[in-house]
Specification:
Length: 318
């Protein structure tokens, strides 16, 4: 989950048929008509509230989102997933971070949404999902009728400063306009890192910081002036067990896992010669492991990981 650009205006519900843009009704089961059904999902501890929003009418204002995501006075989550109709794909995902900002893309969230789509809508082992970062293709691994692992084609990593976006006018970039293994100043301190977009901005550093330094740097770097839309920040390192990372997620804070962050970190590691191309590279996050493969032509990043439903319930005070 990562904050970013908003989307103005509600779309009219799709009325047609065809392979895409099918019209679904919100599942009601035995719930009261005046209550709204929700589902709670998690991927590596990165947790979400999912709302079926087929007519694009569910509240998305900051007050509503922050209230539901509050872990003491609400349901509690890192963000809200809105499952919507799409004329371009099987469905659409809109995601709001726990601070009320909208995200372009969320790797853990889209795996959870794919599981929900399989469990409640259509038993398809491959689905397409429209997002602000583009249309994603997801392959679900089915065992005993359950979809608990999903592989996502996250699309190609975007590396040019203008694509991230990042203001690199006074910074060293390579011949392609990429910011790779170069320094930015944070409170007068030079920090070396790489900028990557996986549909949302990331800054990855392999500097050997102490935990207490990381705790302070995360929120400072998220709002660095070089990133007009803010940025996610990954503090990556290697130990005897391989690659690991801590993620300060834009619009959320420290999270147990971040799917786009895992992809961006592997991209940075591959580009700087720390990991190989064309194989699944394991990355350890606080909440567990993800696997990411990056082809040498940089045509896509493939992420594999779990998705679980935790519980479902109803919201009475809409």
């Amino acid at each position: 989950m990562q904050g970013g650009s908003g989307r103005g205006g509600a779309r009219k519900p799709h009325q047609g048929g065809g392979e895409f843009g099918r019209h679904f009704e919100t599942s009601k089961d035995s719930f009261e008509v005046d209550a709204v059904k929700f589902w709670k999902y998690q991927g590596l501890g990165n947790d979400f509230i999912l709302l079926e929003d087929w007519d694009d009418s569910s509240p998305k204002d900051e007050k509503f989102v922050t209230r539901l995501c509050d872990r003491h006075f609400g349901i509690g989550a890192d963000g809200i997933l809105y499952l919507q109709q799409s004329d371009k794909a099987d469905c659409r995902m809109q995601i709001m971070n726990s601070d009320g900002s909208e995200a372009e893309m969320c790797g853990n969230g889209i795996r959870c949404l794919a599981k929900h789509y399989f469990d409640y809508k259509e038993k398809k082992e491959r689905i397409t999902v429209e997002t602000l970062a583009g249309i994603m293709t997801l392959d679900l691994k089915i065992e005993s009728g359950e979809a608990n692992e999903v592989t996502v084609n996250m699309g190609p990593p975007r590396l040019k400063c203008k694509e991230i976006p990042m203001d690199c006018r006074d910074l060293p970039t390579d011949e392609k306009g990429r910011f790779i293994e170069s320094n930015i100043l944070v409170d007068g301190r030079a920090i070396k890192g790489t900028a990557v977009s996986m549909g949302n901005p990331h800054f990855i550093t392999f500097e050997p910081f102490k935990d207490e330094e990381i705790d302070k740097l995360g929120p400072r770097m998220e709002r660095h002036g070089l990133f007009p839309r803010r940025t996610n920040v990954e503090f990556a390192s290697f130990d005897d067990d391989g690659l690991k990372a801590r993620v300060f997620e834009r619009g959320v804070g420290w999270t147990l896992a971040c799917g786009t962050g895992a992809c961006a970190t592997v991209v940075a590691a591959v580009l700087t010669g720390r990991l190989p191309y064309d194989i699944e590279n394991r990355i350890r996050l606080t909440g567990g492991e993800l696997w990411v493969r990056l082809p040498k032509d940089l045509s896509a990043a493939y992420m594999r990981g779990p998705a679980y439903r935790v519980f479902k319930g109803e919201i009475e005070d809409w």
